[in-house]
Amino acid sequence: MLHSVLFFVAAAMGASGGAASDPPTSRAAASGREAAIEAVVAIEVRLAEGDRDRIVALGTGIVLEDGRTVVTCEHVVASFGEVTIRASRREVAAIVVSRNSREDLALLRLARWEERLPGARLDPAFESSSRDAATGAPATVVSFPRGGEKRVTEGRITALHRQLAGEGITYQFDDLLELDISIDRGSSGGALLGSGGDLIGLMNARYTSGASSYAIPADRIVAFRRDVDRFGERQSAWLGFRLCPEKGDARRIGSVVDRVFSRGPAAIAGLRRGDHLVALDGRPTDHGGFVRHEQLAERDRPLRIDVRRGGGGLLTLSVVPRAWPSDLGTRLLAEAWGVTTQRRRFGGSIYEIVGVAKGSAAARAGLPIGVALGRVDGIPVESREALAVLLFRALHRRTLWLDIGSNEGGSRIELSRSCPDGRP
């Protein structure tokens, strides 16, 4: 677990100097890189106080190809206030169109229809940019640290499929890119570019000590924007199975099916516990690759899964992702952690904690009843789907953080359990 990660807007000390970029390999690469750098803008969130405005958040964003849509991190615009985009010595008002705290992504639109800013193309197929996202590959971060001037910083990708989970972290994430680039407050929402100038990620976290930082892969941005354009919000999909937790050789152990939920998409397709996952949509995969496919899955779009069962040959199944079951989150919270909830508007939350099972992780932590459940692992529980996704992703975790009570007088409770095989 990582215990020293903070998001840039919250606070981060220190800065890194800019570095000259590598010579472009072609005119096309240079043109694409320059366009991507130009599309990076500064974001300010301001609150009116009397006759003056106070800046309550600083960040960075990327203008997309239509010149009106800006993608950034959700935590950059989480504060209530007026959002201002600063680009090329212009200040333009923007509104938040959609936000998703589970994925730390938000889409903004320029407030005035006639306004346009230089934008960067986000490849829907993501094939060209995904090839750059490899361990050891060169990478460039473009951001506005501390709300100052635009900075271009060079480095390398040091790891894929990283998870941030640790005490004191405001958000919990899977499948991030790790970089050896040290960046500063205000860089959240900055562009991560590959060697060809393609957008391969969105900066969102860093260690409070050391030089490591983290980015959301660009294919997640593509999926987020696709769903917002179609449905007005991100619609994650449920596959209905989990793999064994990563231990040691993740390629050997992490690809074994550990649990198949009855009447879920995987169960309907014929997947069984103990099946060895070999490939997804024809591509060989390991545990990290599965996490990415799981987060990018589209509802009702069949996913081809190749598995080996026992000593037999290759078996191909078709799993059709569905919407998350409305009661899955409450079932998992009770089963794995001993917390019983009731759905109701209570203390600003949609759930009230109404029971704690004897001998459970919740009982050992002294979790009270009759209080609102506000957040799980720092992420607001805003819907049944949100609770389901958060608890599903925590199935193999030994620790869970619950924020209870009101926003003004709430507290954080740590639940701990012993689960060597991913079960309560």
Summarize the structure.
This protein is 17% helix and 37% strand. The chain is built from nine helices and 25 strands. Mean pLDDT is 81; it is low at 1-27, 125-132, 248-254 and 420-424.
What is the mean predicted local confidence, pLDDT? 81
Strand numbers in spatial order across the main sheet:
8-9-10-13-12-11
In terms of per-residue confidence, which ranges show pLDDT below 50 for 5 or more consecutive residues? 1-27, 125-132, 248-254, 420-424
Count, helices: 9
How far is the first residue's CA from the last residue's CA?
19 Å
Q: What is the β-strand count? A: 25
Strand content: 35-45%
SSE topology:
Layout (H helix, E strand, L loop, with lengths): L4 E2 L20 H12 L1 E10 L2 E12 L5 E4 L9 E6 L2 E11 L4 E6 L16 H4 L7 E6 L7 E14 L8 E7 L11 E3 L5 E9 L5 E5 H14 L9 E3 L6 H4 L3 E4 L4 H5 L6 E5 L2 E2 L2 H10 L6 E6 L5 E6 L8 H10 L1 E8 L2 E8 L4 H5 L5 E6 L2 E2 L3 H10 L5 E6 L6 E6 L8
Antiparallel strand pairs: 1-12, 2-3, 2-5, 3-4, 4-7, 5-6, 6-7, 8-9, 8-11, 9-10, 10-13, 11-12, 12-13, 14-15, 16-17, 16-18, 18-19, 20-21, 21-22, 22-23, 22-24, 24-25
Helix pairs in contact: 7-9
